[in-house]
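Just scan my protein:

——
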Amino acid sequence: MKKKTDAEHNLLVLGLLRNNSKTWWPVSSIATKTKLGNESRLTDKLKEMAKRKIVKYWDELPEKEKREIQKDQDELKRSKNNFQIAELGIKKYDKIAESCMDDEMRLILNLKDDLV
């Protein structure tokens, strides 16, 4: 089996986050859903994306905002390294999906039809 490139990994992660754009995801769940097992490496990759404003990193949110979000996602109190796709990430991902992905690629990445 061919090893996935970093770009393919990034698309898998952004696809998951994009399909659930209102949800904060613990890195452990992202790793499980995308089958990218190395959580440490994935965390580093997501933190780098957070620096570029493609995703939001939970630890960088103000405490007041965290408390508001935790009302709807109680599990965030117990998890570490939580991420959510940012507005810029949605725009970038949608642009790639619209202009670069054929139907087969969207199926492979398990994208919802309403995104493209």
